[in-house]
Each structure stands twice: as C-alpha cells, then as structure tokens.
Amino acid sequence: MRLSEVATIRTNFPEAHFWLVRRGSASRCGEPGREFNPQHIGIQVHRTDILLPDYLFYALVHVHQQGYWGKLANGTLSLVNIRVSDVRQIELSPR
Fold it and tell me: Structural domains in the chain?
C-alpha cells in the first residue's frame, strides 16, 4: 500500500496534519514540521483507522534521519527539492 492511498498529499495545504520541507539544503529536504508554509508538502491522513497522523509524523522523522530524501532530492546546487510524487510513492508496510 502506498502513502497516497491513506493520505492526501499536496503543496499549499493549510488543513494538513503536518508538512515536509520541499525545497532547501540537502540536509533539510524532507524534514517534517508542524508549521504551515505554502511551499512545503502537506500531508493529511484520511484513513485514521489504518494510520494515525502522529505515528506517520514520527515515522517520517525517522525516514528523514536515515537520509532517505537525500537520494531522491533533485538539483545540482546547494538548493535541492523533492517532488510531491516522491512522497506519494512511499510504500507502507502492513504490520
């Protein structure tokens, strides 16, 4: 199951549960946060019977700390970005 099946993911999404930094340094890209910014990627879980928003937030903190987004970040200078489609394609394990 992919993240897009249980959550709505898009930019400029003030109603989201939390946001991922979309553009910045390689170490900052993909970092989850609780403050709205129209440039960040918002994630709102709509299937809370399967996945709790707070659990997903901390799981994505772990993903960021493991350097997952560094491999997917696009850009050649110090400013890189991740795509909304990259976030939508995250594979969820049914455990």
Answer: 3-88 (3.90.220.20)
